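Task 17 of the worksheet. Students: predict the tertiary structure of the chain below and write it out as structure tokens. Keep your answer in the requested format; marks are given for formatting as well as content.
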Amino acid sequence: MNRREFAQRAGALALLPSYDKAHPDMLARYLVERLNRLAAEWDLKRAAIVTPAALNATAPSANKWWKWWAAFQSATRWGPRW
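Model answer:
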């Protein structure tokens, strides 16, 4: 490839439509889709809790998280006052 061929090919690439102009909202659409999918999953999980027994079945994971959080808070030098 010589300089002339390179310049012609580079010029041809410059004439192609820009991807960001063709899809200006690509990132926003991606983030909204992920957020909506996550919200739908949580809606299904919350809808499954209809009895006290179902609520107690979810308690171990919540208790595990709270224990982790308490250990993390006590490990910091600014101990929480709550």
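Marker's comment: The helical segments are 3-15, 19-22, 26-48, 52-75. Residues 23 and 73 are 44 Å apart (CA to CA).
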